[in-house]
Specification:
167 residues; 85% helix
Length: 167
C-alpha cells in the first residue's frame, strides 16, 4: 500500500515536471519578436558588460554589434537548455514509472521514448513560432533543440548510473 502511494506520487511529480518544462517552452515561444529580442538583448548586454574587456568604452555602434553577436549565442543556448531540461524530465518520468522494464533495458526504453518525444515537441514548437508575430520557425533550431534533448537525456542517464552505484 505504501509503495503504491509512493509510485503514484513519483508518477504525478515527474509528470508535472514534464508539463512544467513544456509549458515554459511554450510560453517563451509565445513572446513576440520584439519581446523575445529584448529578452535576449538584456542577457547579452549583461554578458558583454561582465566579460567583454573595454565594453564600457565602446561606441554605441560597437556595443550594438557586440550585443547582437552575443544575442545569437544566447538564443541558441536557450533553445539547447530548454530542451535539455525537457529530455531529462521525460527520461526521468519514463524511467521511474516504467514497470515493464528494469535496469539497463528500462533506461534504454526511457531514452528511446524521451528523444523522439522531445524532437517532436521541438518541431511543434517551431511550427508554433510561425504563428507568433515577429517570430519564425527554423529547422536549425529543431536540430539545436534535439541536441539539447539528447544532452539532457545523457545527463539523466549518468545521474541514474551514479545513483544506482551509491545504493
Amino acid at each position: 500500500m505504501a509503495g503504491d502511494k509512493k509510485e503514484k506520487r513519483i508518477t504525478v511529480l515527474t509528470g508535472l515536471a514534464v508539463l512544467a518544462v513544456m509549458a515554459a517552452i511554450f510560453a517563451f515561444s509565445s513572446f513576440n519578436g520584439n519581446a523575445s529580442g529584448a529578452q535576449s538583448s538584456f542577457f547579452s548586454n549583461m554578458i558583454a558588460e561582465t566579460f567583454v574587456k573595454g565594453f564600457a568604452g565602446y561606441s554605441a555602434t560597437e556595443k550594438a554589434e557586440t550585443v547582437a553577436k552575443i544575442s545569437l549565442f544566447v538564443r541558441k543556448a536557450a533553445h539547447f537548455t530548454e530542451f535539455a531540461a525537457l529530455g531529462a524530465a521525460v527520461f526521468t518520468h519514463v524511467a521511474l514509472t516504467d514497470r515493464a522494464k528494469r535496469g539497463s533495458l528500462r533506461m534504454l526504453r526511457a531514452a528511446l521514448i524521451a528523444l523522439p518525444f522531445s524532437v517532436l515537441y521541438a518541431a511543434s514548437d517551431e511550427v508554433h513560432q510561425l504563428f507568433v508575430d515577429g517570430r519564425a520557425g527554423s529547422a536549425v533550431d529543431v536540430l539545436i533543440d534535439s541536441g539539447g534533448a539528447l544532452f539532457g537525456i545523457l545527463l539523466a542517464v549518468l545521474a541514474f548510473l551514479i545513483f544506482k552505484k551509491r545504493k
